[in-house]
Design goal:
By secondary structure, the protein is α/β, with parallel strands linked by helices. Helices cover 36% and strands 16% of the residues. The strands form 2 sheets. A 7-stranded parallel β-sheet has the order 8-7-6-9-10-11-12. The protein has a 5-stranded parallel β-sheet with strand order 2-1-3-4-5. The site of 2-keto-D-gluconic acid has 10 residues, from loops. 2-keto-D-gluconic acid binds next to loops.
Length: 315
């Protein structure tokens, strides 16, 4: 029996590629020199898409695949998948929640600490010989006991807040409504008000058309010259032009970012800034978590084609 044909939108580690190749005929879209021709030639064979959170699947791709049944996303964020197009085509969609939650939250907190305590610069201070030649590194900013705002108290936001509580931080959060699991953390409906009462402001909400630029210039300026914005969600949740303006003028004190407009080709204005920690969209980037994500992608695809219940359905 011939193997089912799957369109693979982006690369996977070998430990995922090998079992996928064993089980399916994987058509490596990301390696195609002429992608429209690739879809025109093979589109009629394809019954599933294996994609990544940052790559997704748009309407034009789906329309090129008349036999498409399922889209499996390697990532929790499915904002790059055109869900309307998937619904219209009765295409199932899966993602990889839960398995990556703690690693993403860990990195978000680590980014806050690293930026607040100047760890990247301090490492350079030692390696350059400055410590021996020029003396002590500049004093930095305290984290424990300060005010934290979490914009989006979903799985990742909750794990971030849980970790911040260990640093005795005064925690508030904003979401569409108060959350039952929010412990003693204050609910603040308005992101501007949340930023006003925060020293560290985490953007942890799922990205969608409704959340685009929810972090406005007003939110950034409310966070202020002593404030820090940490984004481990999607760049689209933040008005990046306003963020850059505020970082350059000092209207915002600092930022720690794992996601960017146009990534990996980020705005070169970031490269000139000494008050930003830059990370390459790798909050879920641990061996353990990426293996768990890849396993979920495979298991969802196999379950679908075996006629069984999907493990982590979005649609
Ligand atoms: C993914 C992410 O690992 O989970 C998501 O939505 O953004 C990342 O954790 C990444 O998109 C995979 O390429």
């Amino acid at each position: 029996m011939s193997k089912i044909d799957i369109l693979q939108v982006g690369p996977y580690p070998d430990w995922d590629q090998q079992p996928l190749d064993e089980k399916f005929t994987m058509h490596r879209y990301f390696e195609a020199a002429d992608k429209p021709a690739f879809l025109a030639e093979r589109g009629g064979l394809i019954r599933g898409i294996a994609t990544r959170g940052d790559l997704g699947a748009d309407r034009s791709m789906m329309e090129a695949l008349p036999e498409l049944e399922i889209i499996a996303v390697y990532g929790v964020g499915y904002d790059a998948v055109d869900l309307d197009a998937a619904r219209e085509g009765s295409v199932r969609v899966t993602n990889t929640p839960d398995v990556l939650t703690s690693d993403v939250a860990d990195l978000g907190v680590a980014m806050m600490l690293a930026q607040a305590r100047g760890m990247i610069g301090a490492d350079k201070w030692v390696r350059s010989g400055n410590w021996a030649q020029k003396g002590h590194y500049n004093l930095q900013s305290r984290v424990h006991g300060k005010r934290a705002g979490v914009l989006g108290l979903g799985r990742i936001g909750f794990e971030v807040a849980k970790r911040l509580a260990v640093f005795d931080m005064d925690i508030a959060y904003s979401d569409v409504a108060p959350k039952d699991h929010a412990r003693d953390w204050e609910f603040v409906a308005d992101p501007i008000e949340l930023a006003n009462r925060s020293d560290f402001f985490f953007v942890t909400l799922a990205a969608s058309a409704d959340t685009r630029h929810i972090v406005t210039r007003q939110v950034v300026e409310a966070l202020g010259p002593q404030g820090m914005l940490i984004n481990i969600s999607r760049a689209s949740n933040v008005d990046e032009g306003a963020l850059l303006d505020a970082l350059e003028s000092g209207a915002l004190g600092a930022a720690a970012l794992d996601v960017f407009d146009g990534e990996p080709d980020i705005n070169p204005r970031f490269l000139e800034l000494g008050n930003v920690l830059l990370q390459p969209h790798h909050a879920s980037g641990t061996i353990e978590t990426r293996k768990a994500m890849g396993k979920l992608v495979r298991e969802n695809l196999i379950a679908h084609f075996d006629g069984r219940k999907l493990l982590t359905p979005v649609l």
